[in-house]
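Rotation project, supervised by the postdoc (A.L.). Task for the rotation student: set up a whole-complex structure prediction and record inputs and outputs verbatim in this book. Inputs entered:
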Amino acid sequence: MIEVEGLTKYYGPVPAIMDVSFSVKEGEIVAFLGPNGAGKTTTMRVLTGFMPATYGTCRIGGLDVYEQSIAARRRIGYMPETTSLYPEMRVYQYLQYCGKLHGMKRGELGERLDEVTEVCGLQDRRESIIGTLSLGYRQRVGLAQALIHSPDVLILDEPTVGLDPNQIIEVRKVIRGLAGKHTVMLSTHILPEAQMTCERVIIINQGRVVAEDTPENLTAQIQEVETILVKVRDTDPSVAKLLGEMPQVTSVRSHGDAGPGTYLVDTEIGSDIRSEVAQYVVGKGWGLLELRPVEMTLEEVFRQLTTEERGVA
Amino acid sequence: MRNILTIAGRELRSYFTSPTAFVVMVFFLFFSGLIFTFSILQPQARAEMGGLLGSMVFLTLMVSPFITMSLLAQERASGTLELLLTKPVKDYEVALGKYLGALGLYAAMLVLTLVYPILYAKWGDFDWGPAWVGYLGLLLVAMSFLAIGIFASGLTRSQMASAGICLAAFLFVWLIGWVSYLVGGEDSWLKQVAKNISVFEMFGDFEKGILDLKNVIYFLSMVVFFLFMTVRVLELRRQV
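Outputs recorded:
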């Protein structure tokens, strides 16, 4: 549904994105993940036909966003990073205006308005003046205007930024509910968000795509060690040393955040020595409190990818 | 066409939900009313629109920047332009829609001033022909001022700057008329050029009730030129 090939965009002499290529299948929810300034917004602006690329092509449902811009834009619902709306308009007026610009007829517009306000939880705010709404509600209006014409493709630039935790959960729920019916691409710099809402993650850093896979595969690919968390009652420093001398253990770190006596034991991939560790700890009489495998979070993957600049094959 | 009307409608409604429309209308109607009142209080008052229309050109010059300054500058500054330009709407539809919205406000205001000729006609010996020609001239002047205004609004994010550019441009086309009086020699090229680009010089014929196609074309070509430039500016601004 979305095909991007060799996209490059220069702002003056400075490249914002370099040779970005990816594709998104119909009905997929994909996260575009990267730190601030990585080129997420630039990519989305090119994708939505707001500005042309310096090199490369973008296709939405087979339509070139530059050559067949109007036809391509008809199929896109876009929510920009800063949801700027006309503050003097009422919510329903604004949504009608957006629907009309998408060529919707009066009858279907009325029906669709009901659906969209319900999906976005705006039923009781339809008559409100946009300028008086809280940021959370404005964000929902932004989402509603992107949905009004039932677009095939939804492009959401940081849809949860600036919302409070409850609102974030709400908006994520709405987005997950769109899966299947729409192809969704959302950008975010919040990792758990990508992990929770999306089937696939494209990681972009300094204008280049550095990785692209499911959250699970990404963590699996980059993981070099398996880690076991061990918590014992004995706070003697020799515990760490003795644990480190066990076979297949590569290193032992004390896990400061979780209080004294907690250690992260890195072991060789595929070794699974949990029962050996348990026996050993019990044998030594250190007082075993907790023992569990620790999975690498996407957060760590991300940090590795974006700080050490290493790519994932 | 539908998109143009949708945008124009939103623009017009937005004028009336903000103080802009009221401030502009009150300013325009108060001062034109004042001038009208003074003109009929004169002992030798005549039922003619000429002088009044001339002063309305000046008032138009004053209010036009306030009508147009927000059109594109504000949308760019607040970020709403990004949403508008990613809708399936062509750039020329955006420019024309906004232009028509501004023109709609001006036209509404102009209709209200029809009360002056109506009063003239009721109590004096009034000839409607020259009045209509004068009104046509005034509308054409406003159309060209508003076209310059929307272009200026597209150039910058700052509404103040766009109003400033506008005022400078209007004062230029106004003051250039004086050059034609100051420069001596009927065949001096400077005098001829000044005479032919001065808005007031061009409006002079309309004011007298003379409908000259040359003058109509002068104003319309100004409108077309500046609207074309506005579309170009919108296209250019996408690149950055």
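Student's summary: The longest helix of chain B spans residues 128-155.
Supervisor addendum: The mean pLDDT of chain B is 89.
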